[in-house]
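Researcher: Can you fold this with iron/sulfur cluster in place?
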Amino acid sequence: MSKTSIHPALITKVLPDSIASEIGFEPGDRLIAINGNQPRDLIDYQFLCADEVLSLTVLDATGKTHQIEIEKDYDEDLGLEFDTALFDGLIQCNNRCSFCFIDQQPPGKRQSLYLKDDDYRLSFLYGSYLTLTNLSQQEWERISQMRLSPLYVSVHATEPEVRSRLLKNPRAGQILQQLKWFQERRLQIHAQVVVCPGINDGVHLERTLLDLAQFHTGEVPAVASVAVVPVGLTRFRPTEDELTPVSPEKAAEVISQVLSLQDKFRASLGSTFAWLADEWFLIAGQELPPESHYEDYPQIDNGVGSIRSFLRQFSDAAGQLPQQVSPPRKFTWVVGNAVEKAFQPVLQQLNSVVGLEVKMVALCSHYWGQTITVTGLLTGQDLIQGLQGRYLGDAILLPVTMLKHGEYRFLDDMTTEELAHQIDTSILPVGGVEELINLCIK
Ligand code: SF4
């Protein structure tokens, strides 16, 4: 599917003390146009709002249209939030990757869980990965004209036949020409390579990383960084797929191969450039690289260095921990069993505060059929299975990485409210180190 027609943007929130709240905007109003132009998405909206004089065409909840004139500083935000970033619909994916996580979900869920996005706007706005296989000429031009950079691109392999095999799409073979296109326009991408043993590992992985490194030159390198990620498989994957799970031996092989390429990249490019996701070290049972390895953490949202970064932030913030809390409190901190060992120092420090008791429950995902699970993949059902019947203390400390972006919903569609009800305990979402400490001591 491509996009549908543009819908007036539905306003879901009006920020207090903002221009929009002063004017009297209300949730439920719809923004039709700005200075006569209908925004297609949040990118257009932001662009059109960067003006000092705005004429807004707005449809209120009763169906009445209003024309509103505003004068503001060019960089002043109106204070509106919308139900979606894409007012003309999602650009869906035209590939059929056998490792696609959407296809590896159980059947019978809400239709929207099966939507495969491959939308450059989401990539620009939120850092989601896209493949570049479905862009029209107009969209390429828009990326260039609006300088939508950096984008996040799933490269997987640079050899045309290997990438086409992985994405099951003949259009996938044009990746090197596309990277050249970015380079010519001084636009940037961050790349990811999902390694599928037997398909794009070994010599293919080496070829891919060396090819990508060719684009890491000049003041604005077209390929800013690469994340190398192990393929994730679930028990719902189609039986006829051609995939092999990553074994500890395979993980050790990839680690050693990429570490040695990193040495070369540091020498020739002045940067490690291609980074291994933490998961490789967890699968192989090896020590994570030291914190100094990760430079400015260019691929942290892809699980590259997130454990080291969390431990560092915690040790920086640990000075805020009091000697004692009163009244005493007890919490259960739920994590994926892959990080159980790595987070022990954090647990010990929290428990050294008199009156504070934090118990870690490290779970694997029976839902996905995994024996080792990273925290972000635990589902509501896994938590019910792992927590029901246990004494959980005053509340659950729940890492927000388990929840969908901006929602209180797990990957299996369960809400935190449903979970709290089922296990009869409050849930405290934890967004990072500061929040973890504050929830424990305040
Ligand atoms: S590009 Fe992404 S969404 Fe599309 S099939 Fe491949 S993995 Fe799935």
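Model: Folded with iron/sulfur cluster in place. The chain is about 30% helix and 20% strand.
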